[in-house]
Structure formats: structure tokens, C-alpha cells
Structure prediction request, 535 residues.
Amino acid sequence: MPWSKPSFVVLTAALAVSTVASLLLGVGAEPTAPAAGASAPADAPDKATQLLRASMLAPQSVSYVGQLETVRFSSSRAEATIVRVEHRAPDRTRKWYVAPESLYGDYTITRGITTYEFDTRHSRVVTSRNPSVENQVAAIGALGLITQNYRALLGSEETIAGRKTQSVSLINKYSGERAVRVWIDERTDLVLKKEQYSANGSVAAQLRFEELRYTASIPADVFSTTLPAGYKEIAGRDYATPTTDVGRVVKEAGFTPIIPKYLPEGFSRLSGDVATVSGVKTLHFLYSDGLRTLSLFEDALGAAADFGKLKPQTVQFEGHDAQYVEDGPTTLLTWEEHQLHFALVSDLALRDMVEIATSVVP
Amino acid sequence: MNEHLTTNTLIDYVHGELPSAEDALAHTHLQSCTECRSEFERETRLSEALRFAAAEDERELPSMVKAEIWQAVRAARPSPYARFATWLQPLVAVPAAAILVAVVYFASPLGHQAPAPLTVDASYYLEQHAAEQMNPLGERNVTPAVLETSDTGRPDPSVGSRTAVAAAVDAVE
Prediction:
């Protein structure tokens, strides 16, 4: 059964800490310069950044049992779940769905990069592997990108799930908009509440622990992936392994891609990968500013998106009739240009996505 | 080749439409058979006359040419059975062909379907994005696609639902 070795996690953590430490030295040089009379405000950004770093590493060393509530908002409605969570550091997690009713009793077990989804209605277990979960390059780079593009500000102290927390907001340096706010347990550095915001300030997604108990004594069989009687094991998706070697990815795709000439400030290309979907070789580029992510998919076979039961809406730009659908705060926008089919996915506002799409020209 | 050349063979020979091996045999036979050569020359004249007439279609054919044409037509007239079979042929062949086409069209699953255009399930894009997106702070709050598409599903189909994995799983089953 594949799962991450502790040495890998330790290495990842060490790399992250060293990267963050050097980053903090660079970032901290200006704001921490002792000014006459300077006290809490001058130190605040540093403390906020340190808290963020600690919260990113916390799940690798903190084990807990709790109940988590999540809500994802689209433009007109919301989807919520209540999940019982058991996490044993560094990388084993079981989530048992309490609500909504359609998911009640289903559960997932994650062991490293492998996730087992137990579907009780169909008596099946779907196994998928996602190398991005432990992509140390992305993990280490995340904080660097965040501090490069966001200003971390300490907020108020609040009690979440009976624990004293310190909130930290991340403000986009270019737009001045608050993108994320996290409430970090003062004792364990675990994120107990998190809110993501849309560009207009509305809450796009929220998660919050309602109950929480720290314990290292979680029985191993909680994370057992043995098939229950009568269950079938089904191979799910093995996600492509992203690489920063874009040249290799393009060569593998077999066609010359068109890349966006415009990206929102702070975004840069992180990785690429190629997958064959329904016989269509699809190229995927991932862009991010540390907190927000943008995916651009291209294929040269003119294979349009099949929306199935979804009801896409149309938006026009530069003579294109593009189609889009919302999935919570995430929007999928598809269009064609120069015999290539494109799909753009992100949590950005539709107008920003259209602006990016408009710039995808040879 | 000792047998005389048939009229059809001669006509094909005149028009250069025999396979090369038969053409060579016919040529050899004509060198030694005066009867067939005479017939060959008659066919040649007739063909030339027809070509000439076709080129000068406004011109009335000479009476001798007309007579020769009719003579040739009469000589080549098929037997009554052959004429009957020829007359019957379209009556049988046309309905048979129609039935064959109908059977192929309706019986074959591909017969009456246009080839499906290449498509990529839209949910693939959402799933792949969710799998790779950076989520450095806190839990991922995205419900797995397989579980999300349980029987009851989502109440509002106008909002996206990640179904590609579930569809693939169902297909496997």
C-alpha cells in the first residue's frame, strides 16, 4: 500500500522551514527595521507570516479528531458538508460524511498521495492517486508566492471550537482586496477556521471546526483500507504528475500551445502536464499567485467540452461564443481559437477570466 | 487458339479493352484466321462509322452505314430468355438493393448514427484543477467527485457537478 515515508515528510518540512526562514530574512528586513517608538505594528507582519508558516506545517505533526463544517458559495447558492475528521500525523486522514443526506455514511481515507473513497450506496471503493498532494516544490513555493503577492495582517483573537485562535488576513498587494482569512490555534498552529473571499468581498468558501480534540492515540484500523464485505474496488483516476519542464510537456502534447498574454498581477506559471482524456491529448498549465490558482487546458483536436447535465451560459468576447458554468466559487470557461479548444478554470471573477481568455491569441 | 473469336471479344479487341493476355491471343488468332479477320475489319469499319457519325451528329448517316448498324444490332440481339432476364433485372435488383440498404441502416448501431464528435467531459477540467490547485492553508474543502454523485445528486443541475470520475467508474462497472 503506497504511502509517504516519514523521511519524505521530514525532508519536506525541513526544506519548507529553511525556505521560509530565508524568505523571512529577506521579507523581514524592511518592516522589522527598528524604528524609534515602533512596537507591535512593526512586528505584526513578521508574526503573521511566522504563524502562516507554522500553520502550513502543523498537519504534519499534529493529530486530532473533530467535526468540520464546509460551505462553498456560487453566485446564487451554497453547498455545505459536515464531516467527522480523524487525522494522524503526518499524512493519514479519514473523513466521514454526516451531511448532506446524499453523502451520509460515505467516507474517504487518505494515505499519502492515495485516496480511497468509500461509496456506501454503490458498495464500492474508488482509489485514486494524486501526486500534487505531496508536491514538495509546490508546497515549499506556496509560502514564497504568498508572501510575494500578499500582505499578512494579524487580526483579532477568537475562540473556535473551544480553542483560542489568532486570525491572520492575507491582503492582495496589487488590488488591496482581502483574499483569505485564517484562524490559527495558538497552541498547535492548526487552522481551525478559514474563509476565502471573492473579489467583491463576499465569502466564497468557508471551513470551520465545530468540535476538536487533539490526540495521538487514534487506532490504526481507523485508516484501514480493507474492503468491507460485498464491496468492489475500482481504480479511479491517477492524476498526471505536474512538471516545471514546460518544454517536455509541450513536446509530449504534440502541438504548439497558445499561452495567455495577460495574467492577473502576481500570477506565474507553476507547472504543466499532459493527459489523454477520451482519446484527446489535453495539455494543462497551472498558474498561481500562491493562494489563487488558474488552470488552462488546451487540445488540438477541436474537442469541445461536453457539459452533460450542466447548463452552461454563454459569454461573448472577441467574436467568440464562450460557455461557462459555476461549481461553487469555481468557474469553468471554454472556447475555441485557431483550431484549438481551450478551458479555463479558476476561482477568479468571470470578468477576469474573460480578460485572460481574450489574451490567449497567437 | 483455334476457336473463332466471339463478337464480344472482337468488339473488345477493337476498342482495346481486353486484358493483355487475351488481347495477345486475339491478335495471334486474327493473323491466321481469315474469317475472324474479316469480321474484325467489319467491326472496325462499323466503329469508325459510329465515331464519325457521333462527331458529325448533324450529318445524316449514309444508308449503307445505317443498314450495317441494323444488321449488327440484329446479329447481336440476345435470346428471348436473355431479353426477359434483362427486363426482369431492374424489377428484382432495385427492391433487393433497397431492402439491403434498409437492413444495414436499421440493424447496425452505427448505420443511422452520425459519428460522435470528439468531446472532453467538462467535469474533467474541474476535477483536474481541484486536484492540482494550491491549497496551502487548511483542509481542502472539495467533496470527492465519486461521493458527490450519489443517487440523490445535487438539487440544482444548473450548477456544476464533478461527474467524470463517477461516470468512468460506472462505465467500468
